[in-house]
Design brief:
By secondary structure, the chain is α/β, with parallel strands linked by helices. It has helices at 43-47, 52-62, 72-78, 80-90, 105-112, 124-132, 168-178, 195-200, 218-227, 244-247, 259-281, and strands at 15-21, 24-29, 35-37, 95-99, 116-121, 138-140, 153-159, 179-190, 214-215, 230-235, 287-294. 35% of the residues lie in helices and 22% in strands.
Length: 297
């Protein structure tokens, strides 16, 4: 099909539809293979998803902070492996920017580990929580306006954000300019090649074109990063912070009572513990985790 959308990776137009979900199409770029929602629903409908109700009733419970009750020691432990990975990439703690801070739990853990931290976010509720409850410096700024920042950073992190962006290339190019020479980007996003997608089919909750606008594989994410000026791109498929349910999660589905979900849940419960590291090593885990460096090293 022909679309007015331009591929974020190669700049071409035209996709082949591969999935229909909730009446919306997800297509594959006929030139480079990048997968994205095409056509796209109106921006105001997408942004409406990030409401106060979503923040308190979905986001916080999913992040072990139901009702706004949280334990900072828990988040220190939860993010210890990620902070170790980041220090391995850039050295001792320095200046960090998080794009899409949410409530700020990762950024607070980084601050407690010695980083100078700053974040950007669009949700009013999340910003208020991060500022008032965690004492963080978080600007209300769409990621697409990241280039307006004047600071320089040792590391920029983007966790489960790029798939939501209207203009991922614009954002990544801005990140590249904000990083000091040799600085690192750490990025995670759902893996379109995940075993869970094949197991759960179209009910896999990642497939949600009203909020997830882009769907990446190792190949397409690496191509986009190279095109935006990054180098030394490395995928961390065996990241130590992932366990069984971060690797192959049968609960992340829009059809929890379906036979397909029940079979996958049984499979994961029975033998997943013996094989999830093999799933990760094969590049079939639920999430892509990648580090990339500013080309001006």
């Amino acid at each position: 099909m022909t679309s007015s959308l331009t591929c974020a990776n190669c700049g071409s137009t035209g996709t082949t539809p591969i999935i229909v979900k909730f009446g919306e199409l997800i297509g594959r770029c006929r030139n480079c293979g990048l997968i994205y929602a095409d056509p796209r629903i109106p921006a105001e409908a997408i942004l409406a998803r990030y409401s106060a109700q979503y923040f308190w009733n979905e986001y916080l419970p999913a992040n072990s902070a139901k009702g706004g009750v949280f334990d900072l020691n828990y988040f220190d432990r939860r993010y210890a492996a990620m902070l170790k990975l980041i220090e391995t990439s850039v050295g001792a703690p320095g200046k960090m920017l998080e794009v899409g801070t949410g409530a700020g739990f990762f950024l607070k853990a980084a601050q407690r580990a010695g980083w100078q931290v700053q974040g950007i976010e669009i949700s009013d509720e999340a910003i208020a929580f991060a500022r008032n409850r965690l004492g963080l410096e978080v600007a209300q700024l769409p990621a697409e306006q990241l280039g307006s920042l004047a600071d320089s950073f040792d590391v920029v992190v983007m966790f489960e954000v790029i798939e939501h962006l209207f203009e991922p290339r614009l954002v990544l190019e801005a990140v590249q300019h904000l990083l000091r020479p040799g600085g690192a980007l750490v990025i995670s996003t759902p893996n379109f090649d995940a075993l869970s997608r094949f197991a759960l089919g179209n009910s896999w909750a990642v497939l949600s074109p009203g909020e997830h606008l882009y769907y990446f594989t190792h190949k397409t994410l690496a191509a986009l990063l190279v095109g935006c000026g990054f180098t030394s791109i490395q995928f961390h498929d065996n990241y130590a912070g992932w366990g069984l349910y971060e690797t192959m999660n049968p609960r992340y589905t829009h059809a929890p009572d379906s036979l397909r979900t029940r079979l996958y849940s049984s499979f994961v419960a029975s033998i997943g513990g013996f094989m999830y590291r093999r799933v990760l090593a094969a590049g079939r885990g639920d999430t892509l985790l990648c580090t990339a460096h500013n080309k001006n090293m």
